[in-house]
Amino acid sequence: MRLSRCFLPVMKESPSDAQIVSHKLMLRAGLVRQTAAGIYAWLPIGWRVLQKIGQIVREEQDRAGAIEMLMPTLQSADLWRQSGRYDAYGPEMLRIKDRHDRDMLYGPTNEEMITDLFRGDVKSYRDLPRTLYHIQWKFRDEVRPRFGVMRGREFLMKDAYSFDIDEAGARNSYYTQLLAYLRTFQRLGIRAVPMKAASGPIGGDLSHEFIVLAPTGESEVFYDAAFEEFDWAQEALSYDDADGLKALFEKVSTTYSATDETHDEARWAEVSPDRRREGRGIEVGHIFYFGDKYSASMGLKVSGPDGSMVTPQMGSYGIGVSRLVGAIIEASHDENGIVWPETVAPWKVGLVTMRGDDEASVQAAEDIYKKLTAAGIEVLYDDRDERGGVKLGSMDLIGLPWQLVIGPRGLAQGVVELKCRRTGEKVELSIDSALERLTA
Amino acid sequence: MRLSRCFLPVMKESPSDAQIVSHKLMLRAGLVRQTAAGIYAWLPIGWRVLQKIGQIVREEQDRAGAIEMLMPTLQSADLWRQSGRYDAYGPEMLRIKDRHDRDMLYGPTNEEMITDLFRGDVKSYRDLPRTLYHIQWKFRDEVRPRFGVMRGREFLMKDAYSFDIDEAGARNSYYTQLLAYLRTFQRLGIRAVPMKAASGPIGGDLSHEFIVLAPTGESEVFYDAAFEEFDWAQEALSYDDADGLKALFEKVSTTYSATDETHDEARWAEVSPDRRREGRGIEVGHIFYFGDKYSASMGLKVSGPDGSMVTPQMGSYGIGVSRLVGAIIEASHDENGIVWPETVAPWKVGLVTMRGDDEASVQAAEDIYKKLTAAGIEVLYDDRDERGGVKLGSMDLIGLPWQLVIGPRGLAQGVVELKCRRTGEKVELSIDSALERLTA
């Protein structure tokens, strides 16, 4: 992408209404613009990050055997009356009347709708187990939206729903999503610690939150440093291995972690002091096993192996996709701007000419841009008519993993500069070597 | 994908409320389920088609230099008051009050919002021309939603917006999108004829609709058969070639096409009778050049080359992505079900064992499934415990381009059957030859 043809407005100053670093950086680096209280437009660079996060979430859901679909944003109030949640849900539910004066709502979650869809089409235990998910915009009418996309009103969520014939099956589905979550967050380049949680308005008795440490987090968290050493992606664990999944769950359950809501001082005292980690955290995922709460209230039954009718056991599994953009920035930035993990960076390489009026520099940049693009590498080429220092500042701000900088003096000696955004390390090397490193 | 682990409920009978063939087939083949009047959930197979269509639209927008972003579904009424459309828009606009009693709406289109975003960040003619687009859910509160996703209330639309410094630039942006549309529809496997249109509530004096012929279409259309012979994808036309784009526009404008709204009997009489095509059509895209209608009313100005302030010229460009699923089915089906164009088919190959209880058949199917998947071919493997005839019926209904059928008798002789869904042609050939054909 040529910056001169993109839409990437960067700001020198932080807007005064942004209180936390991720919100400030998302505005300054041109990821989002607020269009109404707690509602944001995703500009091209923000949209690229959002898509990359969504794609990793999708790939790990697919790998775990969940099936993608898409439910609509607006729902009929009647569905929510069947579960009893329409009246129970507070003013965070955005209630709407259509032109025929029918009660609708902007879905904050989809337990009722998926149960209704399942009820309409699934009749036999042979169609179980099944986990369905979608990645769709939700709305929660927060009384005081703040912190940018971290606590917005319209937000993108991945929510999955599992249906099993019995509790053992439902627990296996729960463990499957637990592993999928651990893998997902690791691939996103952040440490999200699973914590036993109270289940709140979803109901049920088994629930974990996934919390990213950040000073601006909403809740206080406590965990054993062992969580920092687990490598979930490397766990040679198959989703077909029920015993292995159960062992994973035991490992997560027996290693101490808690929010202030569930914190247990007695158990905390048993954790060796050098392994105690405390801080504030941001919730980026939440999973629930809630048994027959919705299937029973909404009359979902399937015929069992012996012909009798059975009420399926359900769970639901959320990831805050748009919130993750903020959470990743909270966890990964420095004084100059964002430092994207490579897996979610909007582009891998920023290509900069220090002198846009130097013919040789421009020619070299065009050549490198073509070669990297042809090799399938995502490049943002800053071809604007700006001073070199301004371009380098923008590149640090938007935080691409690599900067390839072309200056007239270096070029005369056949070298360019390659800078790693995370470490700040710069090396001078030939164009060919730089290309080789970036395409390796 | 193994059908036994998917969520693909097929129905033998057409639901009685479905009046047109695409709606019937979308319900029977398990693409969608209605969740409220004019609102649909996209089940896995429907979601796959929707994504494929969206991806082709996206690729052709990107190729034409448009930049993707994402605007939110809910908008502030204040934005629409600035353009004067809030009061002008009829009851099709879904008006919403949030918990603080602020006037909101579910966006039916985004001219106001994109103009506002542009106004906030673009200050100079050097940032023009620019075309931005998003693929996002919209809402129009139709008084009588019908025909399934063809005239639903919540629908997925691609809408692009162009900003230029003058009319010549704006016309070039318009011609660029015109070509992108012709290429897009051709890649989707449908013939969409561009027709000069009245511009309606968007405003402006230059506008084309893109119409797919189908007996259930809403409007009557007339066009010169020359449109059936143009090959837009093959046109050696570069988006950088302004003269070539203008010539394309002239070619489209001088070849007769019209809806009943714009039909001109005198010009029609000049078309040679054997080239006159008449029928009903479905609108799948609509493009508009409307000058400064929104930039002027909303106060968008940029500094021009000579320092004076200039009001940019704008256009907008819509494609009905969810409607296209229905339109493609209207244009491509037979008495047994859907016949997907290969570019948008949910899977390329349906793999069927005639006898699920025959060990050798199952082994062969598993082996073929692995090999095709490893080769990157999308396969739906019907591994259900059903009679062969039922499976074949389902495959015809859901309309994948190729069916690979394994029967015990053929297998004993080392052959399988490969059926082309579109032509019905069946050939017996060795497994290796079948794999070779499908992966070629």
Strand content of chain A: 25-35%
How many β-strands of chain A, per DSSP?
A: 23
Based on CA atoms alone, the radius of gyration of chain A comes out at 24 Å
Largest sheet of chain A: 9 strands, mixed
Compute the number of helices of chain A. 14
Distance between the termini of chain A: 21 Å
| Helicity level of chain A | 25-40%
Alpha-beta classification of chain A? alpha+beta
Low-confidence spans of chain A: none
Which two chains share the most extensive interface?
A-B, 56 and 56 residues
Average per-residue pLDDT of chain A, rounded, comes to 94
Subcellular location (chains A, B): Cytoplasm
EC number (chains A, B): 6.1.1.15
Organism (chains A, B): Sphingomonas edaphi
Family (chains A, B): Belongs to the class-II aminoacyl-tRNA synthetase family. ProS type 2 subfamily.
